[in-house]
Amino acid sequence: MRSGKFLVLVSCLNLVIVSCEKDVTIVGGRTFSEKDGATPYYIDIPNGFPEYLIPESNLPTVEGIELGRKLFYDPILSRNNNISCGSCHQQEHGFSDPKRLSIGTNNEESEFHSMSIVNLAWQPRFFWNGRESSLENQALAPVVNPLEMDMTWPEVEQRLNTHTVYPKLFLEAFGTEVIDSSLVTRAIAQFEYTIISANSKWDRYRRNEIELSPLEEKGRQIFTSLEKHNGDCTHCHSDIDPLVGDFVMRNNGLDSDAELKPGYSIVTGLDRDYGRFKTPSIRNLAFTAPYMHDGRFETLRDVLDFYSEGVHFNRTVDPLMEYANEGGVEMSEESKDALIAFLLTLTDSTLISNPAFSDPNE
User: Fold this and answer.
1) pLDDT band at 120 (very low <50, low <70, confident <90, very high)
2) What is the mean pLDDT of residues 337-347?
């Protein structure tokens, strides 16, 4: 038996150094049996976060995460070798895209705005329309989407299997030099599971380390109030939930009946799911503009103007949108200013500078 110590992530995420046996260890309270020498990687759960949802079949390893990070930033997965996962999920933009709609390998616009891919280890569904319940399966789709990477998986596998470096890296991570789509997406998912945001001013406030400013505190009260002329935000973005988003498929009244998009109905086939999209986390809004599934709002002020005066009372609008039939909650401009101040306390600046998440080739 050999033991080793590995620094898992930077201290700002409160992750730890662990010692582990080379055949069996405990990860997140579960037994992890090593396969072919890969080194177990312990993701410490940040203060107040629930147990993560990482599947037993893909518990992260040091080698798997490093391989996934390399793949995440490698344009080899795209038809024209010109875009990577990191092209549309940019670290400096909170792992989202500053463009309203991302541009694919053939210079065509994608269907949706690229949402932030932070804290995925706690999310039950993926894509704006919720069509995947596995992060590993989610990673399959962008590669074959003609508006994104426009490849086929046999072509990707051919490129990687004949590459000068990748077979060795897959051997280290998964015990085989034969590369297939399953191993590629497992590696990418392992890296994405480690992209954790848990050190904003709001997190420090929740840990009783600091106080909010008077304007931020006023905004917090507006955020949590369920009364008209206030935010009415916590139905879907609870201030006691560190994820600040319930990831439920909801119709928040963006469009009229005539303009409703299929949304979650492509999964269920039900008309009642028209216009329903994934409720995202609202962490790091300072980095992730534009907003909504189609990136229609350029600023936080635009978002609050919508919730205040622009909500559509359409046929599938969520019942929690209590003031939809009145066009919104009708906030004052002063209330919007305070609410924006509070929302910006959810900004975790360590996320965009953490070298563990950056392009390994830079």
Assistant:
1) very high
2) 98
In the chain, the amino acid numbered 252 is N
Residue 171: alpha-carbon gap to chain centroid: 28
CA–CA distance, 209 with 202 (Å, rounded to integer): 10
| C-alpha Rg value of the chain to the nearest Å | 21
User: What is the homologous superfamily of the domain 64-190 according to CATH?
Assistant: Cytochrome c-like domain (1.10.760.10)
Instruction: Give pLDDT tens digits for 189-229.
Output: 999 999 999 999 999 999 999 999 999 999 999 999 988 89
Of 59, 69, 9, 67, nearest in space to 32 by CA: 59
What is the value of pTM for the model shown? Answer: 0.90
Fold of 201-346: Cytochrome Bc1 Complex; Chain D, domain 2 (1.10.760)
Return mean pLDDT, the chain.
Answer: 91
Q: Do 121 and 13 contact (CB within 8 A), yes or no?
A: no
Q: What is the pLDDT of residue 36?
A: 54
Residue type, 95: F
Using CA atoms, how far residue 74 sits from 69, 131, 193, 207, 292, in Å, is: 9, 25, 18, 38, 27
Residue 341 has pLDDT above 90, yes or no: yes
Q: Is the peptide bond before 290 cis (omega within 30 degrees of 0)?
A: yes
Partner residues linked to 297 by β-bridges: 291
